[in-house]
Write the structure tokens for this entry.
Amino acid sequence: MADADELLKVWASMAPPEGETWSIARPGPALDAVAARLSSVPRSFLDDDVSIRALSGDVAGAECASAAYADDPRVRRGAAIGLWLLASEDIVEPFRPTLAGPWALRAVDSLGLRVAPVVDPLDWLADDERREEAARTFLLWAGFVPAGEDRATAQALWQARDSLRRSSALAEAYAAYEHREEIARRLAEARAKEAAARYSSE
Amino acid sequence: MSDPDDPLALGEYRPGSAAVLTDAERWPTLDAEAAARLHRWRTHPAAPAWVHATGDRLTAEAVDRTRRPLPLGGWLGEHLATARKLPFYRGRTGLTTLTDFPPIGRADLAADVSAFVPLDADLDRMLHGTSSGSTGAALVIPDDVEEVARGFHLLVDLARRAGVEWTPDAERLALVWVLQQRQAFTYVSLISGFAHRAMARVNLDARAWRTASDRSRFLADANPQVISGNPTSLAELLNDDLRDVLRPLALFSGAMALSGPLRARLEAAFSCPVIDVYGLHETRPIAARTDDGPFRVLDRRVHVEILDAEGAPVPDGEMGEITVTAGENPLLPLVRYRTGDVGRLVRSSDGAVGIADLEGREHTEFVTGSGVRVPSVDLTQQLQSHGALGWSVVQRADGGVEVTVAGGDARLIRDALRTLLDQPVELERVEGLIDLGEGKPRRFVSHAVAPGRGTAPA
């Protein structure tokens, strides 16, 4: 099983900054609908033998990043639940608006690589608060604010449920990884932009 | 894209290739008079082909802030408090006083510079800086737009301490920063906090000018109040065509060691102070001097220690590695940064801290097959552009060049250096920096040019 630290590092390297994600989030499906659908995940999706690589290909036509870490049971279950949310739009009924979109697999990975390393996905099924955390996280990284909530409210409610923030050691590590990615991105942007005038040799 | 006619041309030095902002973004307080001034120097008939365009990016509020130095009261305590929260020190305990912090070095910044950027830093002020440094591989440095602008006012303050009142003077260029190398970023800028007077970064290399006489025509018309550069470029000012037309109030030398004889010649030629500033891009300016005595540590957020090889402080007066705690750049607060340079800490009678016998800043020239001198920065550009992480380049007395590179494309490097120097080049490639030897590698040595000669024309 990989360290939570390592899995969070992978997530930090692939995810855009939280603030930026919130700033472009638009109204999405109702939170209750997503949470209820999440809890109805079929046993077959949680089977230890399920191949996330194959499942992702079948559901989304591409491989999610979690597939590379699916030998870790937390990652496998977390990603499988995310894939169930996508698959359920065909099997049960579509969400309004639909979850399908450019960030659908990123949302799956937010469950596999960001939430699952901190809270076991089996707890999402047993505990209302943890299920809400997973549903809110999924919606955020799919590009949505839960229906009926404004961004500020949704952000505050998500942060209050976010287990990563409550684990100080992991939160610190994650903040450092996220910071590293952000600095690299900002430096690349600054390089593309042009320097400022200087005055002497150093 | 490189110039197909020049096998050594590097794409980023093509005119305009890195300029993307509008003038209103470069100088948010730009007015019509300043815009006209800018236009005049950009289109001056004898101007070089400007490679770049860049400004200071200061809003009116930032112009005001950058005129004043950062306050010094209690800065070190605040600085250490900031440092304790840096990702680099995560999980480390017992960092109570300055000496509890482990010395750090260039390799730490190269490994992960973000670990030294505060989590709550204002990243909107970030600029992309690079430092070629002592081990070869360029280091990316997050610079702060206001700290960079404050650097100009530091020069004004240093000039004032040397007895020079430097204030805007009609249409004279406030400053010309001169370089002498094959390729360079050159530009005209305006100094928002200096009544929008113009400054220029100018390459004195003959290839940068349309005709041979343009160089002196442009500089005569610009009549710069102050000239900054490194010993190589400042020495070029002693050429008759420039010496006769320049009337600077002061000269600033940086980046490399300024020899006593060259200082004396510059002072004699221009009858003005020559201020030698010691600093690294990572730390910002550390100390300065106006004679051949010790460097005086600047009255700013900088604290200097001298450490032995094990990292322990040595008593005042003993030689050791210059180690700097630097708090001017809010995006890169450094604690006990080992510079790789050596010196002794001395205290003057007025209590000021100085650095004596400073060694380490290199000043090396090579000579081509036809006898033309080539500054080491030209080699650095080629080595870095072909991926070398570090190197040792030694020119024998017979002109032949022995190169050891860590990493990079050996064939391309050999070809580039052969073309640049027109000399036989023997090259060995090693895998890692450590294979170049421990400590600060002496990257450039030339036995074909007499040491200590400076770069003044014979």
